[in-house]
UniProtKB/TrEMBL annotation:
Residues 1-12 have a biased composition (Basic and acidic residues). This is DUF839 domain-containing protein. It comes from the Bacteria. Residues 1-27 are annotated as: Disordered. PROSITE patterns: TAT. It comes from Microvirga arsenatis. The lineage of its organism: Bacteria, Pseudomonadati, Pseudomonadota, Alphaproteobacteria, Hyphomicrobiales.
Amino acid sequence: MNEHKGRLRASELEDSGDDGVNPTPNLTMGEIIATRFNRRDLLRGSLAVAAISATVGTRALAANEQPAKKVSNAISFDFKEIEAGVDQTHHVAEGYDVQVLLRWGDPIFADAPEFDPMNQTAEKQARQFGYNTDFIGFIPLNGSADHGLLVANHEYTNEELMFPGVGIQDSKDANFSKMTKDLVDIEIAAHGGAVVEIRRVNGKWQVVKDSKYNRRITAATPMEITGPAAGHDRMKTSADATGRRVNGMINNCAGGVTPWGTWLSCEENFNGYFWGKLGDDHPEARNYKRYGIGTPAYAWGKYYDRFDLAKEPNEANRFGWVVEIDPFDPNFVPKKRTALGRTKHEGAAGITNSDGRYVVYLGDDERFDYVYKFVTAGKVDTRNRVANFGLLDEGTLYVAKYNADGTGTWLPLVHGQGPLTEANGFKSQADVLIETRRAADLLGATKMDRPEDIEANPQTNRVYVMLTNNTRRKEDQVDAANPRANNAFGHIVEMMPEGGNHAALSFTWEVLVKCGDPSIASVGATFSSETTKNGWFGMPDNCAIDSQGRLWISTDGNNAKATGRADGLWALETEGEMRGTSRHFFRVPVGGELCGPFFTPNDESLFLAVQHPGEAEEGMTSTFENPITRWPDFKDGMPTRPSVLVITKQGGGKIA
């Protein structure tokens, strides 16, 4: 995530000195990569692709027990690459149109008020599209690729860009003196998510404002806590003696869409919403330290007791979960599915296994934290969608351990197994899930470089892990062969489940590409030599796999200083001699981050989200009154507005 002057944003708490530092001696991914790739990297040179070695390739093929996919030596993407750079607006490849579909503040109901940035209220915001969309999903209605429900996470808010007169909040202003209760209430209403019916008419997408499906979910919406941690004493508060009800979801980053048509929304940097610190002798002190709780990025605790640890020490345990929502029922009570664990969830993308069970891959977005998967106990019922609504409450959560020989193991986080016992503070499975990070520490999981989105390719069964960066890994944490100490640009790991079975306990793995500028030898990037000066990228964040099985990467952290380019979308080859070749398709305006992406089933429309456009980069100041861009409206007096875009091909047809 970007780093800025002033107080920390909720989106960048993983960059702060007060985050959930992993204290264990578990091996880092850098140490393992050093052992795994030392000799091969020296032989192939800085521009060579991270190709699968003959030994591992043979082992992976045998493990997957499926014929090799026919490999083409030609590039599979045929769009004309755009120029990398940074300016005030967006850019897309030639031959494609960009439509601004939904902006922060746009009304999503027929009776909702129009956006007025000088006269916002919480009541208005609750009827309008929220702020900083991250995950986007498209769920077809009646099987149509041109008519469906858009589901969107609203991750966090930028007060300096949203509100007149607030400006940059200084990190020394512990009381957030310019933030009033009214402004906090608007922020609470701008968080959460939205369900919006959309349809394509004469080539253009439209919002159906009178839809029975449209809904706003906020940081105050009543929700149900389900699964093993529901009702546990550590989940109870003065407002909820049952430990089964909670108001709202916060900092919802990426997510997923299930085969039964529900939306999984993931709480990530929840730690930044809570005030105060607990004493060292408090029962939750160790737990909260591991998650970095107690350094607020918001003024919510100033006005609401539930965000003040001194008044409600258990409230923070009720956040950091995966939330399941049925978008077809506007009265559905969102469910926090505790069986999937409590971490800083980046996403929850899944795949139906060959035996019918559903497998969800999960990244914990923090330096030196872990990769997880959840395997349901039951099987997906393809004939009765409602029968699947409790599927995510029963199953097994695993954490990944990567071995230097290119193999890996999934370690179960099950109470009573190995060190997860009462002797180590785990009295039940609820304790294991509430303290997922500490449980994974004790199992010896591999420390990763900020695991973010993880997606499984249903055509090849390969799984792609986005690792954004780890600027804290020091030289003395790796040996001399490790090319990525101070890993500023991140990398992508490709995993192959044993036998093509996503529920298996073993897998093989390879580094698909190490990111950064391949023309700078010290960076150690491994894009294919066919990648142009515009095609390389840093800081992979979200990804998508289109219906043709091709991988698309969106980024978070590229800027004028870091890489000389804005964040955007790149298409990355994963097969054949062109493996590791990347092409630049779309870029965001200055200060922005690209989220999504999500394709319609026919690949003819691509949804993207631009978060925090105009957010100050290093050496800049950007406020409501004087933003560094007024994208996308470019009107005097109108602030910059995070937006959802849809890209279509001119004349129709599939993207790329």
